Amino acid sequence: MDSITDTGVEIKDNFAQLLILEATQDEELVALEHHDKRWGFFIGKHVLTTKEFPFDLDTTSAALVTLKNSKEHINTMLDDMLDFMNSEGSLWYVHAM
């Protein structure tokens, strides 16, 4: 199941796949591009954006919640995410992880 824009452009993305997997618990419905640590939105070629597209906190968080990860791995990733906390306590992601 892939996302399709109103102009018919197909977008293969990890984020939607992770949401589908979380909702259904059925791995046969999704096709993920697995990453060892940080996750990016797109699967394969980036569409309708810049050639280089950074890993992001939203997709990484969805992967941590949805997939089986060791407690150590989750804690390491959460510690890494704290580097993006602003002075108000919000996670603000400006640079590529």
Architecture overview:
- The model has no long low-confidence stretch (mean pLDDT 90).
- It is built from three helices and two strands; from the N terminus they run ββααα.
- A two-stranded antiparallel sheet has the order 1-2.
- It starts with a strand and ends in a 16-residue tail after the last helix.
- It has one domain.
- The longest helix is centred in the first third of the chain and has 11 residues.
- It has 97 residues and is mostly helical.
- Strand 1 and strand 2 form a beta hairpin.
- Helix content is 33%, strand content 4%.
Comma- or semicolon-separated keywords:
two-stranded antiparallel sheet, 4% strand, mainly alpha, globular, 97 residues, 33% helix, 2 strands
Give a nutshell description of this structure.
The protein is mainly alpha-helical and 97 residues long.
Considering DSSP H and I runs of 4 or more, what fraction of the residues is helical? 25-40%
Which regions are unreliable across 5 or more consecutive residues at pLDDT < 50?
Answer: none
The strand count comes to 2
Task: Give Rg in angstroms.
Answer: 14 Å
Instruction: Provide a count of the helices.
Output: 3
- Summing up helix and strand content along with how strands pair, one would put the structural category as mainly alpha
- Measured distance between first and last alpha carbons: 27 Å
Mean pLDDT: 90
**Overall spatial form:** globular
How many discrete domains?
Answer: 1
**What is the H/E order?**
EEHHH
Query: How much of the residues is beta strand, in percent?
Result: under 5%
